[in-house]
Amino acid sequence: MPSMYDEIEVKYEADSINEYHLRNFLFGNYRVLEFKHVNDSPDDYYTQGTNVVRHRHEDGHQGELTVKLRKAKRSVRDRKEVDLRFAPETTVADVVSFLKYTGWTKLFTIRKSADIYWVEDKKAVLTVSLYDAYNVESPKITKRFLEIEVEKGTTPTIEEAKVILDTWEKKIESHFDMGTPCTYSLYEYFSGKKYKTSGEK
Question: What is the DSSP string of 167-200?
Answer without folding.
Answer: HHHHHHHHHTT--PPPSS-HHHHHHS--PPBTT-
